[in-house]
Amino acid sequence: MSKSESTESAQPIERDQALTLDVLRRLVGNDWARLPGKTLVVLSRDSEGNLYSPFSTYSIGRYAPVHGLTGEVYPLESELARDPELRRLFPEIPDTAVAALVLYPLD
């Protein structure tokens, strides 16, 4: 099922929108619930579908756009408070940074 399709009971997912955790939960719980557990999760490098890599890991951080929708990810304030070296690496976090679930490809 593509990201623009939905189950009968769910609202359609609009293409070309940022995916929120609410939508991801709905997809996992409804649209993708019947997929086999060994189904590989693959990430595309960009929206045009150039190059792909399996999903590897994730982190919780803060995201701020720099150029359009392309941006940077920053540590959480709690991580910066615990780690002085991390604070030195990230002396300033943009005011536009918002909480984000960051997914990383295997390669």
UniProtKB/TrEMBL annotation:
This is Uncharacterized protein.
